[in-house]
Amino acid sequence: MSSQSNNNVKEIVKCTHFAAVKHRFQRRKDDEETPYINHPIGVANILIEEGGVSDLATIQAAILHDTVEDTDTSFAEISELFGRDVCEIVKEVTDDKTLPSSERKRLQVVHAPNVSHKAKLVKLADKLYNLRDLLRSTPTGWNEMRVQQYFEWSFQEIGRAHV
Predict the structure, then answer these.
(1) Hey, which residues are catalytic here?
(2) pTM higher than 0.90, yes or no?
(3) How many whole angstroms separate alpha carbon 124 and alpha carbon 57?
(4) Which of 63, 65, 75, 140 is the most exposed place for a label (fewest CB within 10 A)?
């Protein structure tokens, strides 16, 4: 293994460990209460296995994409530990949780065409993972109409992204 490949493996493991610690108490909203960390790892896996993405910063951002939004992680922490490039991608895919859900969704659709290619890849893999998860198991408290609305909103966002 080349020293670059070895370094990439170290960075991916470091990143995955960081995300696992940050998400350690979180669960998905499915009936099985799947450990949340499965989601960012699954998003990264979609990029690698289905998208053929091998860019280190993109894969790291996929693993970290929900840490600022859903944990006590700061952008400064991500920048310090994983670099400015990774932090910029994470910033592009992070919602402002102080806004109402409907406004966050509206802004995602509006901003979709303007984010970087790497951020679009992370968003696309994130949506694909979530849509597949909805087909597998409806989240607790969701009805068929809410699932349909999520699919429609996802179509709007991804359709505007021009990946």
Answers:
(1) 69-70
(2) yes
(3) 16
(4) 140
